[in-house]
């Protein structure tokens, strides 16, 4: 049975570059926008019934699609801020109140909306996420973090769909196997995040908003936000005794910033095709306009080779390469 019969509203040959912050990628053979978790599950089942590979796409940040596109079904998860609630099943808004300082959100809710709702309620714990462009589902999957905070610090519970068993399941934060920019959902492709619950703390509303603005301003000053990019390209490598001795001023929390190593290697501003290592932040590769996935991959390979030669450090990609 054709995917178009099983999934009304599915589109064909949709340019993925339009749905990624990198503005790179060929066409998706099929493309479907899922507005809620029921539609996510429906789309997954339709793809499997038709023998099509599928990929769950959130905000389109932190990802690089190939120039050839995707020969399957892209399921674009997209929820409005109304898909935030004080507890599962209750939509926030009107006279609703936060109960036990817990906020619930479906996977397609933008992280910025979650941060805003928490701030308006005077709840602290998500200030670090201000300015991160991504969805709740993507943030959980990659254990997003910044400014010393990360998802595992505030996540209480996750609801997900197990495609192998075809059932909706739940797990608490301890069962997510969180690691640096990783989780069980990143390691197991059968687990598709549907929603999350976040346990926050009461705080001073003005202090929370001040921290949020500080983090947004920091990003605006130090990140190349005027060019398309996928955010940080590489994970920060773990600190070694040698790097700690050589560069004590930037050794923090057991990691050394990848951007520092790239700049120290003299690679700032390096261009391949229409892709460039940002002169503003060296862990960003920016699209100067018309960059291809091939340009970016060649630049990534070049960076990894140079860092290995100069520092004997193996950089690992943080962006997801399809």
How would you characterize the overall build of this protein?
It is globular and about 60 Å long. The chain has nine helices and 20 strands. A six-stranded antiparallel sheet has the order 7-6-8-14-12-13. Helices cover 27% and strands 26% of the residues. With 322 residues, it is an alpha+beta fold. The longest helix is centred in the C-terminal third of the chain and has 19 residues, at 293-311.
Secondary-structure blueprint:
Layout (H helix, E strand, L loop, with lengths): L2 H4 L4 E5 L11 E8 L2 H13 L4 E4 L5 E2 L5 E8 L6 E4 L2 E2 L10 E5 L4 H10 L2 E2 L11 H6 L3 E2 L2 E2 L4 E8 L4 E6 L11 H4 L3 E9 L1 E2 L2 H18 L6 E4 L8 H6 L11 H7 L6 E2 L2 E3 L6 E4 L5 H19 L8 E2 L1
Parallel strand pairs: 2-5, 3-5, 4-20
Antiparallel strand pairs: 1-2, 6-7, 6-8, 8-14, 9-15, 10-11, 12-13, 12-14, 16-19, 17-18, 18-19
In short:
By secondary structure, the protein is α+β, with helices and mostly antiparallel strands. It is built from nine helices and 20 strands.
